[in-house]
Amino acid sequence: MVMNPVLIHELRARMRGGQAYLLLMAIILIFGGVTLATFWSVTNVLRPNAPLTVPFAGAGNQANPGPQIDRILIAQRGAIFFLIMSLWAIIIAALIVPGATSGSIARERETHTLPLLLGTPLSPLSVAVGKLLAAGSYVALVGAASVPLFILVIMFGGIPPDQIVSVVLIFLVTTFAFTSLGVFISSISRNGLLAALATYGIVLALTVGSYLVFLLSSPLNKAVNMKYTLYFSPLAAVMSALTQTNSQLSTILGQVFREPGTRVAGEWWALGHYPLWCITTLAYLLAGVVLLLATSRVINPLRRWL
Q: C-alpha 115: how far from its chain's center?
């Protein structure tokens, strides 16, 4: 098996100094601190004290007030812990990717080495794939180093394997899409600083901005129009994946997340027929592929796609 020469060179250049290891250690320490804080909150805050009732529709009368919020929270401690950790993983990926990809091709253009790189037998697509894999592998390394922190979820349980697979798939596809976006912006930028600023702006707008638009809108707009902004945010995709078969968790998140789909009978192409996380993941995957092909066309002197 022949490795991509661009990938090998980028990995050696990235991991040769101590900056990459210091950054990795800092990220793991921050993520570990968030994990411990979340673990302490779940184990010490979510425990039965003063029972409060959840206002379910038709939950009963005074003799039978219905389920109590503290019991629901205790029963869903594992799901809540896994949800918070997954959301933090998406946010960390959104913060790392722009910095890891901003100078991938813009740096080659600044140092006038891009024509030399394109003069090799490598195709422009191979160059783009090598740059993408080099940047994405560092994000994957951070994710792999964070896996032991998720083992704490096993102490609580309540996470089906299909939900774990869904969250991992969302994380990988989101990383791929954001990395493709960063490499593409780097290919059309004159320097790495402009590429980093543009990539950070777009990534944060998709990840956090679209979700904040939903949160800050009125209840009527959340139910009618603004619910469609959730399709742009991977944070909403994680919530959608974890609430598909967990009605209690869906009730707890009722004020901050609402599944846009209605699952009513009708045409197969309607968005309401499919869970939000499936639509978002598929859209991010297609966008990543298109951006990767667009990068190869931009750096190709002949302006071909491959």
A: 34
The 3-state DSSP class for residue 21 equals: helix
**Token representation of residue 248:** 């209690």
State the burial class of residue 261 (Cβ atoms within 10 Å of its Cβ: 0-12, 13-18, 19+). Answer: middle
User: Which residues are 68's β-sheet partners?
Assistant: 53
Coil, strand or helix: which one is 254? coil
- Looking at residue 154, the DSSP 8-state letter turns out to be G
Residue that has been written with the tokens 């918070």 in this structure: 84
Tell me the per-residue pLDDT of 165-207, one tens digit each, with 9 for 90 and over: 999 999 999 999 999 999 999 988 888 888 889 999 999 999 9
Q: What angle do CA 24, 29, 35 make, to 5 degrees?
A: 125
Q: Which residue has the tokens 């804080």?
A: 37
- DSSP state for residue 230 in the 8-state scheme: G
Q: SS3 breakdown of the chain: % helix, strand, coil, rounded to 5?
A: 70, 0, 30
- Among 131, 138, 110, 233, which Cα is nearest to 182's? 131
